[in-house]
Amino acid sequence: MYLGIVTGTVVAERKAAGLEGKKLLLVQPVDEHRKPTGDVQAAVDTVQAGVGDLVYLVGSREAALACDPWFVPVDAAIVGIVDGMDVPAPAPKPKKS
Amino acid sequence: MRCCRVVGPLWAAAKHPAFAGRPLFVVQPVDDKGADAGASFVAIDHVQAGVGDKVIVLTEGNGVRQILKMGDIVPIRSVIVGIVDAIESGTT
Predict the structure, then answer these.
(1) CATH classification of B2-13+22-83 is 2.40.50.220, yes or no?
(2) Which residues does residue B15 pair with via DSSP β-bridges, in sequence order?
(3) Nearest to B40, CA basis, from A4, A60, A26
(4) Could you list the residue range(s) of the whole structural domain that residue A7 is in?
(5) How many domains is chain A partitioned into structurally?
(6) Mean pLDDT along residues A71-92
(7) N or C, which terminus of chain A has less Cβ within 10 Å?
(8) Average pLDDT for B73-79
(9) How many helices (H) and strands (E) does chain B have?
(10) What does the mean pLDDT of chain B come to?
């Protein structure tokens, strides 16, 4: 599982069977300091997340298992909205001498 | 499985029911020298790990389903399954 920030919504009228009624969101994967890691992706939402929320996602086949019914063609699913984290502050950048 | 360092806990009120009551941690993969290697990710804890512990994280769903014994439909992919006491790394 990994962290991400919801950056937008995706609307698609024609979808593969099984995806009807599933909410799709755009998510920027981030690290624990909200620094982007990797490319923006579309993910199916299972927890009513909104734009700007820090969320955690599950990828691959387990993403489909997060949905009901679970036989759906998805490979990223938002499975939780992060309320807080207790992580050390990022190390300061080394000063140029 | 990956060797990781536990960075810190995270908590979420709104989450998939499969995550209810399961502690969540941010973990950072490390190499055999203990240096960070790759991007951090989120894992649930199965062995009472603590912040700063070096741990083994299972990152594949089938094994996770066997461990959690919650049936076949579990949207969880990474679980902390061991606390590392020592790593002996051969010199090549």
Answers:
(1) yes
(2) A80
(3) A4
(4) 2-81
(5) 1
(6) 88
(7) C
(8) 89
(9) 1, 5
(10) 89
